[in-house]
């Protein structure tokens, strides 16, 4: 985990349509398994929420007036960390948190900083390119913070090249693809393991997509043991563009998406996969129920994957948890069965805690965007439900 869901790495978790008097982060008045997090008092009409891997630290990005503000709540109320007056083409956003939230990555269109306790450090902006030359004051965009807070994956841009970078205090800024001098390829990291030893992302290559056309196509890669390798792709009878979504904390699994395209028709749906060194690339799918499946996050030991899906025919199925041994269980069905009541409207979850016990996301209350942390039932209880549901569906032929 440890990378913000979605990318370079920013995702919108909902807009606050109105702003009134708001309280600091705190518990909701309803189900004790559901924590409602109100945005900072001075937040503007929009706020995004980001969470540490153990769900103990919350970061809010808000947009009051012409400002962008970043607040952090470590359990004792919101503290303003950054304030930037908006200028055309300049922004600032969190891109990742360590497991305990002790390290927070913040980036803009030029450089990347780490908030460490009460201090701040800026990543260097010089690295060796694949050509053997050095980037001089290149642009460094943060992509992911390792769970232990000791390393960062980032994208480096200099002289038209896009490089995958790794930083640690001991190694400095290292170019992961420096052995792959592919001039028409841009390497963009997306996520890393808890210890930072496994990193995965996409490589954008300019290549033929049919007999007459060329286009930039994304391919997934993984870096471990000092080597970058392409992740084998699923075999479809249409064009796909692959991207990495997450890496399990133990580094043993990578999840991603294959975006399906048909020339002349355009986008036709998302198809999800999980890769391990032992089993290769395996599709996460249930073709008897779902037409499109999009993975969103994975927990530490790859025992749970969070995602969303559409039923056959295009009707939205909603979000799901996927278990390698039991398959899919829809969140709406799980919450209803277990009596989990979320007062917020339009709850959407973008992260799962590293231990797999909590979901983190956003919703809307009183026309305001709020953060949500939901404590899940015991995994064994959820699995027994999923296995029972699968048995019932098989007997009903659906």
What attributes characterize this protein structure?
four-stranded antiparallel sheet; mainly beta; 398 residues; 7% helix; 30 strands; disordered C terminus
Strand content: over 45%
Radius of gyration: 21 Å
Cα shape: globular
Q: Reading side by side through the largest sheet, how are the strands ordered?
A: 1-30-29-28
Amount of helix: under 10%
Report the strand count.
30
Q: Find the structural class using helix and strand composition.
A: mainly beta
Q: State the end-to-end distance.
A: 33 Å
How many helices in DSSP terms?
A: 2
Low-confidence parts, pLDDT < 50 over ≥5 residues? 6-28, 391-398
Mean pLDDT: 85
Main pleated sheet: 4 strands, antiparallel
Would you give an account of this structure?
With 398 residues, the protein is mainly beta. It has a domain at 33-97. The protein is built from 2 helices and 30 strands. It has helices at residues 331-338, 379-396, and strands spanning 34-37, 47-51, 58-62, 67-73, 78-85, 93-97, 103-107, 112-116, 119-122, 127-128, 134-135, 139-145, 151-158, 161-168, 172-175, 185-192, 199-208, 214-224, 227-230, 239-247, 254-262, 266-276, 280-284, 290-298, 305-311, 316-323, 327-330, 345-352, 358-365, 368-375. The protein has a 4-stranded antiparallel β-sheet, with no helix packed on it. The longest helix has 18 residues, at 379-396. The two termini are 33 Å apart. The relative contact order is 0.13. The model is unreliable at 6-28 and 391-398 (pLDDT under 50).
